[in-house]
Specification:
The complex is a heterodimer of chains A (440) and B (599). Chain A has 440 residues and is of the alpha+beta class. In chain A, strands 1, 2, 3, 4, 5 and 9 form a 6-stranded antiparallel β-sheet that branches. The radius of gyration of chain A is 24 Å and the shape is elongated. With 599 residues, chain B is an alpha/beta fold. Chain B is 25% helix and 16% strand. In chain B, 56% of the residues are buried. The longest helix of chain B has 17 residues. Classes of the chains: A alpha+beta (440), B alpha/beta (599).
């Protein structure tokens, strides 16, 4: 697949320098080898879509080309989006990041969708380490994958699978941008008006810590939302079980896999008494909960409050790519990115209770992060209140999840086994996280 | 107070879309003849106050002769007035005087049922073959229409009641002393059209139609909002349009938004309809400190036909109805707002605005800001402008119908009658009693809620967009912030004076002293941005206002220009329960700095 640079030997250098300094890419250093380069829009302003390999990472960058005499109309007028001067078949051009320029972004979208688009405004919605998302007139969201994988993009695969199976809690895909077996981007319907699950939960905890009453008495009680979120999550798993292959696995086997993971990543967690107790109860033949099975399905893999969105029509799953690390989320409330730790690509096939555990873990995380922000010195003793909040919402989420008809077919029959396995998955999630997040 | 001697000018067929309504029980407002009961003459004496406040239209609770077993909604004679309130002549003088001040008056009309003391019913029950025998709905058993729910669950067990006189059951959707009229009989409809013509001919400006969904019944249905009911409303509307072009019909139908719009028809049924589901969600949103209860219900509301308008309110003479919320939401609302079981009424909460919000003035102001800026014409409940309290120990819905508190004098200045004669005792507790809360004291205090409220009404009336503009939500990731733009109505230009943005002239409220002439001096061209913080804590907001980038937000209360809207997200900081209303003007309204040589 790798080839020498086609057409223009300077393009690789321009990309190389740009990826090293582009915000959000954390200075990807190393020589860029262009392995795929297509003229998407010829002439000026034109677009060349470049895939390059930098230090083993596949980088994707649509490069805009304007005549030097043309004013650079980059989004926000940012000079840092300019790559440099480029000489090619169209003569000398100013090369720039096409995604950061309203006109070329619209032309790119037009090329991907195959329909004429004349947006009045284009704005950045998200800007991650692995993708950039632009909104066009509150009608379409265009996500350009900045880091690629060979073969299907796991998040896109999940999105398309959910959408085709009729799951309406995702923004429906309108067009997929694919070339040479790689997924380059996706166009989706734009979700109007909403807030992240993290921001919603923070609002509730904020009210609780200020009120100092029990969570059920506090005005900002989150339990009904947590319950609905549980219901949506169960529907997601039922849809995934239909849309992708599923198999059943014994709980003992799942527990063994978790043990292996803990042994490899964080043996101290494996040795913790609570972990040992959970493993013992789930595996011991003498235990009343052992012997069950759980479905193993195509799961989300990194499912927490930061991955869901509360819109006018209820909860949505908005980020389907495990391991994304949003570094710049315009419009987020402070602290919105607290959950976005880079845990790496999650396991794509696992018990749905892995996703459930991720979410429950994030409830605890919200409570502790909020307490730390409000009372760094710990004088207010918010811990017990946060635990009450977390307990109430965990229960509400689980109730919403387990009450959905059909979900019993995907999880162990015994409610106690479900609870224990979820707890073990939570410990599994802690492995690999930094100490700050582990404490939470 | 100034007495602007303005009269209603010509026909203004959709005046109700820009109007501020004020709901008033005549018997509770002011007693001019000192018999302990408010009356038409009393209300007339207080028109100056109502005009000063900035009200465009009064809504009178039922004033008809009645045994008063349901606050007058049990009408015993459609063609005259209750003697406690005065005479028909008194009412006509009230209407004329109000019109001279540019204030319209609509009145409650109950067309679904009458009192069991109404002569029609007295005759109907007397035998099975009299002239009114089938003016009501009679049956030999009580089995029909089991799907129809019982509205007053607290007191009624069936929609049928046995009448020993006629030896049959009669149908009633409300109290058993309120038999439903039988609109299958065309004579009943004709009689009701006669009632409507009678009052409109006397000068009334329209009706608030009580309990409209229940006019017909059909087997296998809930008997609510049936096609036959809508057909009757269309015939009623046709009658109004033909003879009384600037009158209004306001429907009371406690239903979900998708069903409520049916009462507008194709613009050929009611002009207005109460948006019941919105109201409890406003209270829910501020308690939860997040906007979704409100935005969800707004997103469910279909577009309404041209010329129609929602009526929105915070509180009214009934309980805070929780019929149109989920069971979980109802439990939440009761837990948050009705901790004492005495505060609960039927499926709702019987409390006034101020006690409901525990006298948190910032919170009250936030809710008022929402009321005045969300789509619809606001309907204000008497006394809430001075933050009056309630008396949950009074029976039924009387808790929120106590006498208006005018002054710290005896009986709160409401009446000079003996205390024992008063129709209901005034509030006398140290917090909400008339010595602490009254109009006179608040008029003297420029910092009072009353003055603030009046100022808000002035601002609203200066910007036609609040009444007729389109509603455009503004994206904000902070769930505690509710932001939207009221943009000039598409195709606007037929009302008022478009192009005369108040911001351009620095004269907000210019039109506010001219009730009855909405649009004069109003800022009808620029969009108005409304940003509300539903949290009791200060909040940051990043608003997506790119559509209006380059425009200058000018704050409406102080006419203070803010930095122009950015091409990216616009940042704003909101105080606890704070809100801003901005006119987004195209020109730069910043005054040039004075130069030394000028002075």
């Amino acid at each position: 697949m790798t080839s020498t640079v086609r057409g223009d030997p300077t393009l690789g250098e321009l990309v190389e320098h740009y990826v090293a300094r582009r915000p959000g890419w954390f200075g990807l250093d190393g020589q860029a080898t262009v392995i795929d380069d297509e003229i998407v829009v010829p002439g000026h302003p034109g677009i060349r879509d470049v895939v390059a390999e930098v230090n083993g990472t596949l980088v994707h960058l649509p490069v805009g080309l304007r005549a030097p005499t043309e004013e650079n109309k980059a989004l926000g007028g940012a000079e840092e989006t300019v790559l440099g001067l480029h000489e090619g078949a169209e003569g000398v051009s100013v090369a720039f990041d096409a995604v950061r320029d309203q006109e070329t972004a619209a032309r790119l979208l037009q090329a991907v969708t195959g329909t004429r688009i004349d947006p009045q405004r284009v704005r950045q919605v998200r800007f991650d380490t692995s993708s950039s998302t632009l909104a066009f007139d509150d009608a379409l969201d265009f996500t350009i994958f900045d880091r690629l994988v060979d073969g299907p993009h796991p998040g896109l695969e999940l999105l398309v699978g959910l959408d085709r199976a009729g799951f309406n809690h995702v923004a429906a895909p309108v067009a997929i941008w694919r070339r040479g077996g790689r997924d380059l981007g996706v166009v989706q319907e734009h979700i109007v008006g909403g807030s992240s699950g993290w921001a919603m939960a923070r609002t509730s905890v904020r009210d609780l810590y200020a009120s100092r009453v029990s969570p059920e008495e506090a005005g900002g009680d989150f339990a009904s939302e947590a319950n609905r979120l549980g219901t949506m999550t169960a529907r997601m798993h039922l849809t995934l079980a239909e849309a992708f292959p599923r198999r059943d696995e014994s709980v003992a086997s799942i527990v063994s896999s978790i043990e292996d993971h803990l042994r490899a990543t964080d043996p101290s967690l494996l040795a913790a008494p609570e972990t040992a107790r959970l493993i013992e109860e789930l595996k011991s033949p003498a235990s009343s909960v052992s012997g069950g099975t759980s479905a193993v399905v195509r799961a989300h893999g990194d499912f927490h409050l930061g991955r869901v969105w509360r819109g006018e029509q209820g909860w949505m799953v908005v980020e389907l790519t495990p391991g994304e690390h949003p570094v710049n989320r315009p419009g987020g409330v402070p602290g919105d990115a607290d959950l976005d730790v880079d845990v790496g690509p999650g396991p794509f096939e696992r018990s749905p209770l892995g996703d459930v555990a991720d979410m429950l873990w994030s409830f605890g995380s919200v409570a502790s992060v909020a307490a730390a922000r409000r009372d760094p010195a710990g004088r207010e003793n918010l811990g017990p209140l946060g635990q009450q909040w977390s307990k109430r919402n965990r229960e509400a989420f689980l109730a919403g999840y387990l009450d959905v008809p059909g979900i019993a077919d995907l999880v162990p029959k015994s409610r106690q086994a479900v609870q224990l396995l979820v707890n073990l998955f939570e410990i599994n999630r802690l492995a690999g996280l930094g100490s700050r997040h582990r404490e939470s | 107070m100034s007495n602007g001697n303005r009269s209603l000018k010509g026909n203004q067929p959709d005046w109700y879309r820009r109007a501020v309504f004020y709901e008033v029980p005549v018997r509770g407002f002011y007693d001019a003849n000192n018999d302990g009961i408010g009356d038409f003459r009393g209300l007339r004496e207080k028109l100056e106050y109502i005009q000063w406040l900035g009200v465009d239209c009064l809504w009178l609770l039922p004033y008809y002769p009645s045994p008063m077993r349901d606050g007058g909604y049990d009408i015993a004679d459609y063609f005259s007035v209750h003697p406690d309130l005065g005479t028909t002549e008194d009412l006509v003088e009230l209407i004329d005087d109000a019109h001279c001040r540019g204030i319209r008056i609509i009145a409650d009309l109950v067309i679904n049922h009458t009192s069991d003391e109404h002569p029609w019913f007295v005759e109907s029950r007397s035998s099975r073959d009299n002239a009114y025998a089938d003016w009501y709905i009679w049956s030999d058993d009580d089995k029909r229409w089991p799907e129809a729910r019982i509205v007053f669950l607290d007191v009624e067990t069936s929609n049928w009641t046995w009448d020993p006189v006629r030896g049959q059951y009669f149908w009633h959707r409300f109290y058993s002393h309120q038999p439903d009229l039988n609109y299958e009989n065309p004579e009943v409809e004709q009689a009701m059209l006669g009632v409507v013509r009678h009052w409109l001919d006397l000068g009334l400006d329209g009706f608030r139609l009580d309990a409209v969904p229940y006019l017909f019944q059909r087997d296998g249905t809930t008997g609510e909002g049936l096609p036959e009911t809508h057909a009757l409303l269309r015939r009623l509307r046709k009658e109004i349009d033909a003879g009384y072009p600037d009158k209004v019909l306001l429907a009371e139908a406690n239903d979900w938004p998708a069903d409520l719009v049916d009462y507008f028809g194709q613009g050929d049924e009611c002009h207005m309809c109460f948006n019941f589901p919105l109201m409890p969600r406003l209270f829910m949103a501020v308690r939860r400190e997040q906007r979704f209860p409100v935005t969800e219900i707004l997103s469910q509301a279909p577009e309404i036909p041209p010329g129609c308008q929602w009526a929105i309110f915070l509180r009214n003479h009934d309980e805070l109805s929780l019929e149109k919320v989920t069971e979980e939401e109802r439990d939440y609302m009761v837990a948050e707002y009705a901790k004492d079981p005495r505060m609960q009424r039927n499926l709702g909460i019987g409390r006034r605005l101020a006690p409901l919000l525990e006298r948190d003035r910032r919170l009250v102001e936030l809710l008022v800001a929402l009321l005045l800026s969300l789509p619809g014409s606001p309907v204000w409940y008497y006394g809430d402008e001075i933050l009056m309290g309630d008396n949950v120990y009074l029976g039924d819905r009387d808790s929120v119908r106590t006498p208006m508190q005018w002054s710290p004098d005896r009986n709160g200045g409401f009446s000079k009658a003996d205390f024992a004669q008063l129709y209901l005792p005034p509030l006398m507790d140290p917090v909400f009693g008339y010595q602490a809360v009254n109009v006179e004291a608040q008029q003297r205090n420029p910092g009072s809620f009353l003055h603030w409220m009046r100022r808000m009404l002035q601002v609203r009336k200066s910007y036609e967009q609040f009444g007729t503009g389109d509603f455009e939500p503004v994206d904000c990731a902070n769930p505690s912030v509710l932001a939207f733009v009221r943009a000039p109505e598409k195709g606007a230009g037929s009302h008022g004076a478009p192009g005369k943005g108040a911001g351009s002239h620095g004269a907000p409220g210019k039109g506010a002293e001219s009730p009855g002439s909405p649009g004069e001096g109003a800022g009808a061209e620029s969009p108005v941005l409304c940003v509300h913080n539903l949290s009791r804590f200060a909040q940051p907001a990043w608003l997506d206002l790119v559509k209006w980038s380059g425009r200058t937000p000018v704050e409406l209360l102080g006419r203070v220009p803010f930095p122009p809207v950015a091409s990216g997200l616009t940042h704003m900081t909101l105080g606890p329960h704070g809100f801003y209303w901005f006119e987004l003007v195209e020109e730069n309204p910043v005054d040039p700095e004075p130069r030394l040589e000028d002075s």
